[in-house]
Amino acid sequence: MDHKAILKVLPHRYPFLLVDRVIDAHRTEGGSRVGQTVTALKNVTFNEPFFNGHFPGEPVMPGVLIIEAMAQAGALAHHRPDDELLNFMIGSVQEAKFRKKVVPGDQLIMKAEVIQGRNSRHKIEIKTYVKEDLVAQATFLAVSSSRKDGL
User: Fold this and answer.
1) What residues are annotated to the active site?
2) Which domain holds residue 51?
3) Are 129 and 135 within 8 A, CB to CB?
4) Which pTM value belongs to this model?
5) How far is CA 85 from the centre of its chain?
């Protein structure tokens, strides 16, 4: 899935679109989305607007933006090609852990898996790596709803 395909699924736009590409996806058959996975990436560049103030002299990607990138990867794990347009919103973030700093030049590799779900509520587990190092992980409870604006 390249950035054009991602833009068709996610309503986010620059500078808030935080997934650059999906490099692997597994979809389940039938009604349940449990077991669907996505591996997505985000290239972290020095040109990101948040690096100007976080922190001057020692740029670090804010944890809240890592969480948002992970949530977007989770939405892509939930998605199926025949889905109607959906809004996918975080209901809660559980067991979030940040293990290492993310800095300019890093590439986030986000591995998302739908581990539980029914109707419009889903639990998604996401682990985020830079190279082989685990930098963040969290479990999200998310809610999906029809996107009425067509974005």
Assistant:
1) 54
2) 3-146
3) yes
4) 0.93
5) 17
